[in-house]
Write a structure and sequence with these properties.
- The protein is α/β, with parallel strands linked by helices and 393 residues long.
- Helices cover 55% and strands 6% of the residues.
- Strands 2-3-1-4-5 form a five-stranded parallel beta sheet, with helices on both faces.
Length: 393
């Protein structure tokens, strides 16, 4: 079968070409366990057929894939040289999940600012392995790489400033790492691959989370000051695959952030359309139709998973409460995780909030109609969710 990309003369992804590019860049050839070849092949098949990438988009996506493979090569080599990496004791105390655009980013960063907490930083998610010659604890070249990425994105799509806070040092989502193993919704978040995501829904993603555990140890080894701190993870990607994350980190509190889908669905569709347009030619209404159905499916999968997992693992956080009393909501979570809340933690979180007000960024301006979205249809699709978590007297 000839892919759509090949049929039109467009460049097409090829697994061996990508692997060889990573080997050449890293000067290494051991990827460790190559379980990820299966989801990688499925992604490549779907991307070549469906992604509609521009030449610049193909080049950018190639770089995303190759740098992830390079990080894996470097990590495998570092573990050979420093087997004590695997002895690091990592404690994941909490995992934030919820529909996208529910205030999870600000809440994640707020919790991470508390003493005794730590999180994956954006620049680490882009390159989780140190660059050659890097002094442990001084990842200035990886920071510079991340800052250049952000600058390039904002030049191409200035509206991203109003949609999501992009900071090289800011805590961010583990799906940026899991996506480099082709087992997270970050894959569909950056590339339009409906066929791949339909396949991913029925794929056992546990191997990705096992590797994530190793990567957290690796990051902690790189920065020994993190030892003894508790990790806080966060990603909307956890919503449809909650049980995978819950099983991988059985002691973690599952923190679900809530906001009315009438606001979150159009906001997220707008965000996705902006991200796709960085490197593809996709109609706004196609993005709207795909992501509306996808988010509905995410919630159905989550609701069934929550019943199986049990309510004792969860705490619910309302977007409106975070906006009104962020420190009170953070205290609720920290106490459930068994962390003391004292004057030091309150001061640290208050300082974070003082420097991270939403008003410091321009407003996210979008029209639901642009994406073919209807408020009534959103309310109907999320009626059970809104009744349980959103409606107030």
């Amino acid at each position: 079968m000839v892919s759509a990309a090949a049929a039109t003369g467009q460049p097409a992804f090829d697994r061996e070409t990508l692997l060889d590019a990573a080997r050449q860049r890293a000067g290494l050839d051991d990827f460790g366990d190559t379980w990820f070849f299966e989801p990688m092949d499925k992604f490549i098949e779907s991307a070549n057929a469906e992604a509609k990438l521009t030449p610049a988009g193909f080049e950018a996506q190639t770089e995303v894939i190759v740098k992830g493979l390079v990080s894996r090569l470097r990590m495998v080599e570092d573990i050979k040289r420093h087997p004590e990496i695997l002895d690091e004791k990592v404690e994941v105390a909490g995992i934030i999940l919820g529909l996208p655009r529910t205030g999870s980013t600000i809440f994640h960063r707020l919790l991470a600012s508390s003493p005794g907490m730590t999180a994956i930083r954006w620049f680490e998610a882009q390159n989780f392995a140190p660059f050659p010659g890097e002094t442990l604890g001084d990842p200035k070249e990886r920071r510079a790489y991340a800052e250049a990425m952000i600058e390039g994105w904002l030049q191409a799509a200035p509206e991203l400033t109003s949609i999501h806070p992009l900071e090289a040092e800011g805590p961010d989502e583990e799906i940026l790492i899991l996506g480099q193993m082709f087992v997270s919704t970050m894959v569909e978040g950056m590339t339009f691959v409906p066929g791949f995501t339909a396949w991913l829904d029925d794929y056992d993603q546990s191997r990705g989370h096992e590797d994530l555990k190793t990567i957290l140890k690796y990051l902690q080894w790189q920065e020994p000051a993190r030892r003894g701190s508790k990790w806080i993870l966060k990603s909307p990607s956890n919503l449809p695959y909650t049980e995978v994350a819950a099983r991988a980190f059985p002691d973690a509190l599952l923190i679900m952030t809530h906001r009315d889908p009438v606001q979150t669905v159009p906001s997220y569709v707008s965000m996705q359309a902006t991200l796709y347009k960085l490197g593809a030619t996709i109609d706004d209404r196609d993005v709207g139709a795909y992501w509306f159905a996808r988010l509905v499916n995410w919630m159905k999968r989550f609701e069934a998973a929550r019943q199986r997992i049990g309510e004792d693992r969860f705490i619910d956080i309302d977007y409106r409460d975070v906006a009104r009393e962020p420190l009170v909501q953070a205290q609720r979570v920290l106490e459930r995780m068994g962390l003391p809340v004292d004057g030091g933690s309150e001061a640290a979180m208050a300082e974070f909030m003082a420097g991270n007000q939403r008003e410091q960024r321009p407003m996210h301006d979008y029209s639901p109609e642009q994406y073919g979205l209807d408020e009534g249809e959103i309310k109907q699709a999320f009626a059970d969710y809104r009744s349980r978590y959103i409606k107030r007297d």
